[in-house]
Known about the structure:
It is built from 5 helices and 5 strands, in the order βαβαβαβαβα. By secondary structure, the protein is of the alpha/beta class. The protein has one domain (6-131): Rossmann fold (3-Layer(aba) Sandwich), CATH 3.40.50.2300.
Amino acid sequence: MTKALNILLIEDDEIEVMKFNRVLSNLKTTHKIVEANNGEEAITILKEKEMIPDIIVLDLNMPKINGIEFLGILKSDEYLKYIPAIILTTSSNRSDLLECYKIGIAGYLLKPLKYDEYVDRVTKLVEYWSTNELITN
């Protein structure tokens, strides 16, 4: 059974945020997306606990606190560390990939250049996690 997700999207590129939102709106689902422009803003959202996300989708290359620094903070928090974090990035750097999995991410997706491929990847990502058993607070 699929369920609506609370998704924290951490992305500093407005076009990427629009693309992600467009894909989800075309799925005709009731997923709720909360947006943060960088890791620092995301930490504030998570600490205020107004909305605890089911999943976190984040880019690696961001100002202030980058994706890897954010993951280190997230995974060191006893309350937040169980939230699945999925990387959605242009970085195909093997050291980034290894570091992210070492920290404990749930997935690593490369942003494809073609929009149709992007739609396919994000759709599969959301469909997968909306059928998964997640820890709810």
